[in-house]
């Protein structure tokens, strides 16, 4: 009579009995994954500037006090490990394989995120009870041990999860793309931070990406053609499984988010593309925009002409119409700090632009990333060929009707503008093509939450010390952004009384100064500070350091 099951919990003996039990349990593990934050993270990088620069850009991060703050939390891991200790109770062998594979996918993702943030962390492959003093007070394990364990987990996931296409569920294909992402991050981080043994991870990355490519399960989304497909991919309400491997489902009246509100409300995100990102988009003939004489002083209309079509599907160009509309939208610079407003993943204008009103799905993994990963991993290994580029980068170029990337030409003529952006890139035979792959990655994956980790793995932290600038204005006064004979923007020094009636946007240089005083680019963020190697990692919370004497703070951070 005394051995009764608790009324407020389900014991492992009661629950782990059928394949449906395993499915139900792993459904709860999806909380490990991000949601709308993937479309917000770039606003804390050098790609996008919002209302203010993030602490990690400014170099003003501080050591958190509370236990579990700043990402040092382990609750999700306990739920994963509890499943892995109990799933074998189920007799259904196929269910055991599939759902243990999914659980290990989530553990690989969990630890990958922890290592990206903190470097070395303690590896726990079992459930910790409150009286497990040795485990609770263990030191951080070597990075090699943790990442080898992560690789073992994601390999198990690849081998055991069925090869199905499911838009909102983990499949073998999701495991392939995560393995490719993990391998690229760890391989390049090891290479550029001189940690050694980078080849193993880069080879794993290239192999996983190639298996996904060769599977034929996915292709690039091309509906609407070169001038529409890229925009449509993110702005439409419902994803499909053409290119999208895994998406977070949002539905009107059921589950919504506030991304459109953040992108369009003057008091919220005010996101704007950085000028050096806009400069990085190629001309539509494949030549660098920055090869043109006078590119530094081009006005808005002129700089938007004859560019990679992804530019005006990412930021509002001349005669911009919102998604689903043919009516040109008035120029509005109040909702963007830099003047280059973000429109990627912006749904149709209307109720979705209200607070919490958006219900367009959020993409977590898509096929285009696999193409970029494959090309970069092969280039960093020194095994890249033109044939590799033709099945990867050049597929992306074909979607927007851009000329192909030629490996020999790129290596013979490295773009000096891109060289200045990436000061730590190794001098080598593949330097030029690696610069072009990085350009392609920045353009294609803009606002998808990967830019900061890219800078960290390439050891390009000094990039955040560069100023973030916006649109160029040749003078105070009225400016025609659409080349239609009507003025759209009026730049003034506090007195806007001379603005023409048709002006829809005003810039006060006392609030948003210009680099040259009364002319120049909007000067919005003068650059942060980046201390190496300290700022490649986040600090551990003080409370955890006090509770566990075996934990050590990351280098450069105070205890």
A few lines on this structure:
By secondary structure, this protein is mostly helical. It has helices spanning 12-15, 19-27, 55-58, 75-86, 93-118, 133-136, 143-160, 172-192, 198-215, 229-235, 259-264, 275-280, 300-303, 367-381, 386-390, 393-399, 407-412, 416-421, 431-444, 451-457, 542-547, and strands at 48-49, 244-248, 272-273, 362-366, 468-473, 477-479, 489-492, 505-508, 520-525.
User: Rounded to an integer, what's the Rg over CA atoms?
Assistant: 25 Å
Distance from N terminus to C terminus (CA atoms, Å) equals 51 Å
Q: Tally of extended strands?
A: 9
Order of helices and strands: HHEHHHHHHHHEHEHHEHHHHHHHEEEEEH
Say what oligomer this is. single chain
In percent terms, what proportion of residues is strand?
A: 5-15%
Helix content: 25-40%
Mean pLDDT: 95
The best one-word shape is: globular
Number of helices: 21
Structural class: mainly alpha
Q: Strand count, sense and closure of the main sheet? A: 3 strands, mixed
Query: Which spans of ≥5 residues are poorly predicted at pLDDT below 50?
Result: 1-9
């Amino acid at each position: 009579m005394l051995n009764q099951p608790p009324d407020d919990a389900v014991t492992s003996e009661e629950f782990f009995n059928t394949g449906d039990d395993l499915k139900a349990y792993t459904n709860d593990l999806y909380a490990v994954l991000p949601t709308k934050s993937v479309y917000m993270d770039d606003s804390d990088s050098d790609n996008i500037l919002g209302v203010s620069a993030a602490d990690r850009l400014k170099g003003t991060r501080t050591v958190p006090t509370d236990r579990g703050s700043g990402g040092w939390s382990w609750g999700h891991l306990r739920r994963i490990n509890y499943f892995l200790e109990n799933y074998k109770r189920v007799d259904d062998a196929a269910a055991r394989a599939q759902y243990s594979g999914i659980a290990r996918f989530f553990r690989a993702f969990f630890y990958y995120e922890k290592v990206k943030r903190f470097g070395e962390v303690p590896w726990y492959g079992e459930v910790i009870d409150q009286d497990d003093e040795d485990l609770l007070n263990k030191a951080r394990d070597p990075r090699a041990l943790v990442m080898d364990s992560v690789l073992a987990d994601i390999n198990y996931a690849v081998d055991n999860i069925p090869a199905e296409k499911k838009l909102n569920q983990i499949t073998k294909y999701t495991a392939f793309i995560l393995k490719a992402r993990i391998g690229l991050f760890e391989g390049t981080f090891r290479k550029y931070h001189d940690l050694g043994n980078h080849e193993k991870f880069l080879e794993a990355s290239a192999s996983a990406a190639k298996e996904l490519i060769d599977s034929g399960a996915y292709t690039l989304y091309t509906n609407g053609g070169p001038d529409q497909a890229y925009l449509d991919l993110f702005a439409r309400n419902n994803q499909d499984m053409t290119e999208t491997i895994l998406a977070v489902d949002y539905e009107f009246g059921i589950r919504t988010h506030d991304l459109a509100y953040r992108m369009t409300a003057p008091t919220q995100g005010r996101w704007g593309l950085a000028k050096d990102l806009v400069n990085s988009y190629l001309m539509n003939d494949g030549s660098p925009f920055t090869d043109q004489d006078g590119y530094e002083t081009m006005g808005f209309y002129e700089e938007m002409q004859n560019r990679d079509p992804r530019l005006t599907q990412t930021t509002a160009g001349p005669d911009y119409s919102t998604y689903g509309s043919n009516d040109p939208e008035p120029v509005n610079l109040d909702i963007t700090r830099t003047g280059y407003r973000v429109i990627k993943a912006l749904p149709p204008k209307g109720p979705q632009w209200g607070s919490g009103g958006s219900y367009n799905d959020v993409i977590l993994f898509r096929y285009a990333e696999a193409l970029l990963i494959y090309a970069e991993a092969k280039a960093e290994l020194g095994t890249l060929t033109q044939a590799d580029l033709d099945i990867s980068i050049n597929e992306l170029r074909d979607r927007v009707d851009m000329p192909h990337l030629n490996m020999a030409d790129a290596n013979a003529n490295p773009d000096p503008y891109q060289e200045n952006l990436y000061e730590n890139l190794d001098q080598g035979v593949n330097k030029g093509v690696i610069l072009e792959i990085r350009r392609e990655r920045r353009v294609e994956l803009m606002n998808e939450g990967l830019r900061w980790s890219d800078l960290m793995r390439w050891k390009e932290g000094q990039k955040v010390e560069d100023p973030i600038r916006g649109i160029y204005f040749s003078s105070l006064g009225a400016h025609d952004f659409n080349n239609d004979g009507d003025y759209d923007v009026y730049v003034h020094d506090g007195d806007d009384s001379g603005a023409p009636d048709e002006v829809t946007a005003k810039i006060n240089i006392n609030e948003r100064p210009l680099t040259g005083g009364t002319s120049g680019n909007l000067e919005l963020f003068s650059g942060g500070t980046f201390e190496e190697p300290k700022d490649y990692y986040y600090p551990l919370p003080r409370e955890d350091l006090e509770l566990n004497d075996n934990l050590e703070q990351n280098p450069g951070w105070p205890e």
